[in-house]
Every structure is written in C-alpha cells, then in structure tokens.
Amino acid sequence: MFRFLLVLMLLSPAAHAVEEKDKHFSNNLYLQPYASLRHSAESGNVDAQFDLAYLYYKADSDPSVSGLSQSNDLAAYWYRKAAQQGHLSAQYNMAVLYLHGHGVDRDPVTAYAWLLQAADEGHPGSQELIKELDTILNEEQIQDAHQRSEELGISRSSS
Quick count: other Cβ atoms within 10 Å of Cβ 40? Predict the structure, then answer.
C-alpha cells in the first residue's frame, strides 16, 4: 500500500515541476522578442531552445508570459532539442514531462533515462529524483532505463 501511495505522489502533477526561469533562464529572455528567440532556437541555440520550451510550458500560468498560448507538445519539442544537446535542466525537464505525461506519453522508464543523462553530469535535482524512482521502479525497468539512456544520443554542452 505504501509503495502504491508513493507512486501516486511521484506521478502527481504537483510532485515535481519543471525547473524555473529564475535559476536557469538566460538573462535576456524577456528582452528578446518572440520571433528573435524562436529564430535562435531554430538555429540550434541551446539556451534559446530551453527558454522557448519554458515559455510554451508556462504560458498560461506565468503572468510574465503574454501573447503566447500554452502548449505541452511544443514545450516537449523544444526541451527535447535542448536536452539532446546536453542541456542538463532540459534533460531534467524532459523527465518531468514524461513523469506527468505533459506533451509526451506518461512513461517513468523514459523519465528515468533522461534523469540518468543529467545526473551523470552532476545535476542535483536529477540525482534526487532518481533516488525516489529507485524505490518505485523494479530492476527490469531500471535496466531498461539505462539502455534507453544510452540510446538517447546526447551530445555534451556546457549547460
């Protein structure tokens, strides 16, 4: 029964949130017009991809984001782009999206795979969440997550 309640707590939307702009946004996010930010993201700028993902994820709930509609699908798309380039907070946020099923199918094994990527580079939030998931996932799921993590094909950046 305890394990079931722990699973429900971890998978509840309030349990983990995407990392916030105050800690991980580029300093000039709100100075850039949307078109410029999108162009930078489309050109491969990892910080612009992360910032754009955040805007799509928080558009309806963050009063400082105006003129943009919230889209979990687009948030997942841009977080994935940044995560694949090695952006640690984007990797963590991909895990959160997979835990909650926001813009992607709910999948704690894939979430664990993304967490492994960020944790391997020292991301503390990912390391903590892995410890929590270790108490929920079985050994087969954890092994599957390690395999998926290797298949993600992440390049390393300085983020």
Answer: 18
Q: Is residue 19 one of the residues assigned to a domain? A: no
How far, in Å, CA of 4 to CA of 153, rounded? Answer: 33
92 assigned to some structural domain: yes
Is residue 146 a part of any domain in this protein?
Answer: yes
Q: What is the pTM of this model?
A: 0.80
Amino acid in position 138: N
CA distance 149 to 146: 5
Q: How many domains does the chain have?
A: 1
* Structural domain boundaries enclosing 34: 29-151
Over residues 16-52, the pLDDT tens digits come to: 566 654 444 444 455 458 889 999 999 999 999 999 9
Residue 23: the pLDDT is 45
Start-to-end Cα distance in the chain: 40
In degrees, rounded to 5, the angle at the alpha carbon of residue 88 between the alpha carbons of residues 36 and 52 is 20
Residue 96: count of CB within 10 angstroms of its CB: 22
